[in-house]
Design goal:
By secondary structure, the chain is of the alpha+beta class. It has a domain of 102 residues: OmpA-like domain (60s Ribosomal Protein L30, Chain: A), CATH 3.30.1330. The chain is built from 4 helices and 4 strands; from the N terminus they run αβαβαβαβ. It has a 4-stranded mixed β-sheet with strand order 1-4-2-3. The longest helix is centred in the N-terminal third of the chain and has 24 residues. It is globular, with a radius of gyration of 24 Å. About 17% of the residues have low confidence.
Length: 167
């Protein structure tokens, strides 16, 4: 007859082995094979780009004042230009990415980025771009273009980026 202590020892060993296997499998994060990542062609019209990089068929990024999702005259002018580009290329589909500067809480900035993306989408729709061609997403403060902590850096990060999703 097996003693109670022996059973506990075996059980403890089993749990310890399971824990070690779990930890070992979690620590082996595989990195994607960078050699298999296709390289984008150099010509602007042949890549899925974004307005932050300047590779989005001429679409431009819209910037916002601090703690605001209201389009100013410059933002409206940029969106009018973006709408003309989109209307001249009817197969082009985009994603409007709302961004914020690094100040403020995560949830607040996600909500603000969503409002920024949605106001740009609505403006483009009002200018005649089909809603089926525009999706939105908010990255809040998670993807700054400038990691600095100056007002100039913050201003660069308060934006709507336009990413081409389909040509």
């Amino acid at each position: 007859m097996t003693s109670h202590r022996a059973i506990l020892r075996r059980t403890s060993l089993v749990f310890a082995l399971i824990a070690m296997i779990s930890v070992a499998s979690c620590s082996k994060t595989q990195k994607p094979d960078e050699s298999s990542t296709p390289q984008a062609p150099a010509a602007d019209d042949n890549v899925m780009g974004d307005s932050d990089s300047g590779k989005a068929s001429g679409l431009q990024t819209v910037h916002f004042p601090y703690d605001s999702f209201v389009l100013d005259s410059e933002g409206k002018s940029i969106l009018k230009s973006n709408a003309e580009i989109l209307k001249s290329k009817p197969s082009l589909k985009i994603q409007v990415e709302g961004h914020c500067d690094q100040r403020g809480g995560i949830q607040y900035n996600i909500a603000l980025g969503e409002k920024r993306a949605n106001v740009a989408k609505k403006y483009l729709e009002d200018l005649g771009v089909g809603s089926d061609r525009i999706t939105t997403i908010s990255y809040g403060k998670e993807r700054p273009t400038d990691p600095g902590t100056t007002e100039e850096a913050y201003a660069k990060n308060r934006r709507d980026n336009f990413a081409v999703t389909s040509r």
